[in-house]
Design goal:
It is a single chain. The chain is an alpha+beta fold. The protein has 2 domains: about 70 residues; about 60 residues, no CATH class. The protein is built from 3 helices and 6 strands; from the N terminus they run ααβββαβββ. The radius of gyration is 34 Å and the shape is rod-shaped.
């Protein structure tokens, strides 16, 4: 039922000499008002859930942007021993080496020189070794 139907019902009420027809028209209007209220409630509920989903997606986008900005501070680097790792960009005050495996998991874990073997690095995050 649309606005034209409601106007038609109101016109029937106004022009009707019959009390029963008046009551029927009022009941029809009441049903239509109830249906419209239900539709409004359903739309408000859908809107609420869409707003929550939108907020969650915005947070994910913000996290991704933050990660990409952090990751941009590092560049891939191949050690003389052949290991592919990440190191901080040239503009950094100190050149740091980061584990590529942990980087894929969106973690920056600095690899350390292995105290037992001078020719390799060790990642305390994933426990992997890399040749220097």
């Amino acid at each position: 039922m649309d606005v034209k139907d409601i106007i038609k019902i109101v016109n029937n009420v106004v022009n009707s000499p019959d009390a029963e027809a008046l009551k029927a028209s009022i009941l029809d209007l009441d049903k239509e008002i109830h249906n419209l209220k239900t539709q409004v409630y359903d739309l408000q509920t859908k809107n609420f859930y869409l707003e929550r989903e939108n907020e969650a997606l915005r947070k994910k986008v913000d996290i991704n942007i933050q990660w990409e900005n952090t990751k941009a501070l590092y560049e891939p680097f191949q050690t003389p021993g052949g290991a592919l790792i990440y190191r901080s960009i040239k503009d950094a005050p100190v050149r740091l080496l980061a584990c590529p495996n942990c980087m894929e998991e969106r973690k920056i874990i600095f690899i350390q020189p292995d105290p037992d073997f001078l020719d390799r690095y060790y990642c305390p995050g994933c426990q992997r070794w890399f040749m220097k």
